[in-house]
């Protein structure tokens, strides 16, 4: 790195964070090359035909409340490159055995009106957060150890966010409101009695009330394709099929951005990485895995509750208590009989994904880290609990275990699609305690994956923040 070419950068990994970092650097006139180990770019934002010809499935990421609300993606002008956000009639539904489903739609007032006795409490909680979401996102989607730009709003959010989700959910009295909050909090993939789990529900539901829970027309891959097109327009290059195992394999450029898991970053940097940083990266903890099913369903999922038939996303887990139990079991390494399952019906907002009356249905369940069993029947049983007759409508099925998820994307260690467990420490201080968490301790080398702030999701903010750190390192701070 001593003879580094100062106007050049290499980005290892082409997920949304790697491409975001590349685009930010390229906008400053830096010549950027992105190296991707797989044959196709995109990381978790790939799409393709996984079951029957003509049916378009998202390989991992599917619904994007934080994508459409991301300060970086909103400023990137991706519409110019073909990104179109499509919204279903109902953003989120949560079916229950003994009561109508809980329903979330974009306007806070309409959601509150459908929650009966909990309507006023829902409005009090999410009304102010939604009104101030744009300012809130500027602070929450940055490292925690920074002076917030909007301290009062951020402090108010932080006090609520620190609480365990099961405690916050119990402020509501109806099963619908409690289940809606618990299902959103379960995206943390942590026991709901852990501190900070409320943050995930608050952010996802508030983003939904502000922007909805949209999908990208033509599949999540269109976000990847748009970022790549914008980068190429600025002269950036992308090479696929190039697996980087060491910095020694790279030409001597001034800046290297690593869109990889912390352990992989330690391997790539080797002895150049300071011992304290390498130890922190090796101690990085991974969370539960995902067991994914892609279904081709004739006539759609036969949900008992009509609202679920019109919802882009359906959280399948039953009551607050059932979800909390399932997440505890998964965290303890036990496969629950009734796991928390996420179902996405993207075709409702984007009909072009279907082939006639056969529709792609995206399903994944939370399972223990590195789970080696076949959870197909367990997952389908849980969905059929609220949609009896589903199996009769399935014309094709493709499954992907946690090991398969990791093979598909090396950052998903043990099937952890968030690239790290959302413990209190790792949520606040990812990937280590540092004023600049993107620096690896190796001059000119930065970590920009979902293991850095603000964490998992298709928002590009990890890459954006890391690239800004790199620009400061080049003396281009504030640009």
TrEMBL record:
SUPFAM superfamilies named among the record's database cross-references: FAD/NAD(P)-binding domain
InterPro entries: FAD/NAD-bd_sf
Name used for this protein in its record: Dehydrogenase
Any single Pfam family the record assigns to this protein: NAD_binding_8
């Amino acid at each position: 790195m001593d003879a580094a070419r100062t106007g050049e950068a290499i980005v290892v990994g082409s997920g949304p964070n790697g491409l975001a970092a590349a685009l930010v650097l390229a906008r400053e006139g830096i010549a950027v090359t992105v190296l991707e180990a797989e044959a196709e770019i995109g990381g978790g934002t790939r799409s393709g035909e996984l079951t029957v010809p003509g049916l378009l499935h998202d390989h991992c990421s599917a619904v994007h409340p934080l994508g459409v609300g991301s300060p970086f993606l909103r400023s990137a002008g991706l519409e110019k490159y073909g990104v179109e956000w499509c919204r279903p009639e109902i953003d989120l539904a949560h079916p229950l055995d003994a009561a109508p489903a809980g329903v979330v739609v974009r306007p806070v007032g309409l959601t509150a009106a459908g929650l009966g006795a909990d309507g006023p409490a829902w409005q009090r909680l999410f009304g102010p957060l939604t009104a101030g979401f744009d300012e809130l996102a500027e602070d929450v989607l940055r490292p925690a150890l920074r002076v917030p730009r909007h301290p009062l709003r951020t402090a108010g959010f932080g006090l609520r966010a620190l609480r365990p989700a099961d405690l916050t959910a119990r402020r509501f009295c109806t099963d619908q409101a409690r289940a809606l909050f618990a299902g959103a909090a379960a995206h943390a993939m942590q026991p709901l009695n852990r501190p900070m789990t409320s943050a995930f529900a608050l952010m996802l539901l508030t983003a939904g009330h502000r922007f909805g829970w949209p999908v990208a027309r033509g599949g999540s891959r269109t976000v990847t394709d748009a970022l790549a097109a914008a980068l190429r327009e600025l002269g950036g290059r992308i090479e696929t099929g190039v697996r980087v195992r060491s910095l020694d394999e790279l030409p001597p450029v001034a800046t290297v951005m690593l869109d990889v898991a912390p352990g992989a970053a330690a391997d790539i940097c080797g002895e150049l990485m300071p011992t304290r940083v390498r130890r922190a990266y090796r101690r990085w903890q991974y969370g539960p895995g995902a067991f994914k099913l892609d279904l081709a369903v004739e006539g759609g999922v036969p949900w008992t509750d009509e609202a679920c038939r019109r919802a882009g996303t359906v959280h399948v887990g039953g009551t607050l208590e059932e979800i909390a139990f399932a997440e505890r079991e998964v965290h303890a390494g036990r496969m629950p009989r009734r796991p928390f399952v996420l179902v996405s019906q993207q075709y409702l907002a984007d009909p072009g994904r279907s082939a006639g009356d056969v529709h792609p249905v995206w399903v994944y369940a939370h399972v223990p880290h590195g789970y080696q069993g076949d959870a197909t029947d367990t997952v389908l049983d849980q969905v059929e609990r609220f949609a009896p007759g589903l199996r009769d409508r399935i014309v094709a099925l493709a499954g992907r275990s946690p090991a398969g998820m990791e093979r598909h994307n090396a950052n998903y260690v043990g099937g952890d699609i968030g690239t790290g467990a959302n413990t209190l420490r790792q949520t606040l201080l990812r990937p280590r305690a540092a004023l600049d968490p993107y620096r690896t301790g190796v001059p000119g080398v930065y970590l920009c994956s979902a293991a850095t702030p603000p964490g998992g999701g298709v928002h590009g903010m990890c890459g954006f923040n890391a690239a800004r750190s790199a620009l400061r390192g080049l003396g281009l701070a504030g640009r």
